[in-house]
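Hi Y.,

Following your request, here is the sequence exactly as I used it, all 420 residues.
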Amino acid sequence: MSSFPQVISEPKVSFLEAKRENFRNTLEILTGCRPAGEAPNRPLLLHLEITSRCNLRCLKCGHATDPPGTARIAPRHLAYRIIETFDEYFAAAVRIHTFGYGEMFLYSRLRVLVERLKHYECFVDGITNGVLVGKDETDWLVEFGYDELTFSIDGAEPETMQRLRGVDVEKLWDTLAYLKERKAKAGSDRPRVVVNFVAQSDNYHELPALTRKLANLGVHFLGVNPLMPADSDAVEDAYTRLYREFGLQNVPRERLEAVLRETQRLAHQVGINFSTYIDVDSLYASKYGSGLGNGLLQILPAQQLERIQKEEKLQPFYCAYPWTSVYVHANTGARVCCYMDGSMGTVEDSADLERVWNQGVITEVREAIAKGEIHPACRSCVQLGRYQHSYTDVEDMRRILGVENTSLFPAALLMERIGR
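Below is the corresponding structure, written out as tokens. Let me know if you'd prefer a different format.
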């Protein structure tokens, strides 16, 4: 039984110092001041896939392209009776993701969950297609101070959004306008609004128009990602065909670069932070089979990733996630992060969460990464270079906590690459 109802009836206490202490304990491990296999800390980052259900069937998503019965699109909710046992973990965690492979606003206990997480002073963020975000949802998002909400928007034109996502984009403009108005009335800057755009050959040209549309809607950040390539070993399926027809590699390079430059110029002009996560060199090298990469911008250069993959050896503690992160899926399976292959076990309550955090697979992963070795569960992540982002997450959490900057991070090269 959860202690939460009793906790919120007591005088307000701050959990920030406990979170800072947890952060400092984590740094001691990552800098070799504690044995790598021990975990006196608790996760700084909890990723809760509260649902795998979705109300849309976007063409690029597994909900539309995976065969029936595929595990990741099986319709499930993460039972709230499980989540409400995690209070001690929420008290120590810095950041909580409330999303996964589904639409978070389909989760009937979302409002209760967000209230719980904000009680524990967690930075809470999520991703939505926006269709189910009405005025009532907007009101409580602002009331509770939900920190960052990302809207997936892949076009400026109604026809484009209808074709790619089956969404009435006018509804999204209304939602963003109301959210901006509601925050202004409350004197709050939360939730901070992010827009994520997945660029493909039939929508990339709408980026400048989208930026102009977002200019007056209180958007904090616009990020552009490429349509990710299909697995080279995959059989011919719906996604393979989609990528072959609509991948950005089909666009003349000069046109793509011109649109990205214009979007960046407009975003700067209207005060929207902007970043493109498209590695144009990698994108077009991959098209002709002459280089490593999938078009997704990496922190490390492609040549260095290629060397790492050949030698299967990296610097010690090249990834922070085994000491900072746990991902709990809607089916109760647990992994270190969303990139990990396999499972650390199932989580039905806080005792299970304690077990997967301190026993079994995670200890093997920690031992390997502490030596700079690649555990089999981490191989696909290393091949894609996604482990690089683990230290950017650590840096983000340092800023959230207001901890002074430090040069203690062991992954000096990674920190240099992200400009810290």
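The first helix runs from residue 4 to 9.

Thanks again,
Q.
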